[in-house]
Write a structure and sequence with these properties.
Elements: H1 7-10, E1 13-17, H2 20-30, E2 33-37, E3 41-46, E4 49-55, E5 68-72, H3 76-86, E6 90-96, E7 101-107, E8 113-119
Parallel strand pairs: 1-4, 5-8
Antiparallel strand pairs: 2-3, 3-4, 6-7, 7-8
Length: 130
């Protein structure tokens, strides 16, 4: 069976934000590229993947993130340091996880989670790597 659309267009996340300019700046600071910007909408890219932002001025962030987007990077510690330098709030601190990733989850200005991760070697016995 052939794909209906190219894989990078099939599953794209759209995040509701309360201030499009603030959120676009936030994501660009982390390394996203701006593909398209409109008055209440922005399309951002990370390699071949896309993140859509839609502004709704009345939006209020949940106390606990409703979800997160995971971004695999070569060295997650570099992003950990960048988020600390920028004073970005952290939801889950950096750690080697049982599922084979070293990761952490930062929060965007509206409380959506951005999880940066780097694969780590799993022990041969399948036990927890930390």
């Amino acid at each position: 069976m052939s794909a209906f659309v190219p894989p990078e267009r099939q599953l794209v996340i759209e995040v509701t934000v309360s201030n499009i300019l603030r959120s676009t700046t936030f994501y660009r600071t982390l390394g996203f590229t701006l593909i398209r910007a409109e008055e209440h909408f922005a399309e951002l890219g990370w390699e071949d993947s896309k993140l859509l932002l839609e502004e709704r001025a009345s939006y209020r962030a949940p106390v606990i993130p409703a979800g997160n987007v995971r971004i695999l990077v070569p060295n997650v510690d570099d992003y950990w340091a960048k988020c600390a330098e920028l004073g970005i709030p952290i939801y889950l601190p950096i750690e080697n996880r049982y599922y084979g990733l070293r990761d952490f989850t930062a929060l965007d200005p509206d409380g959506f989670g951005i999880r940066f991760a780097t694969p780590i070697p799993m022990p041969e016995d399948g036990q927890n790597p930390h």
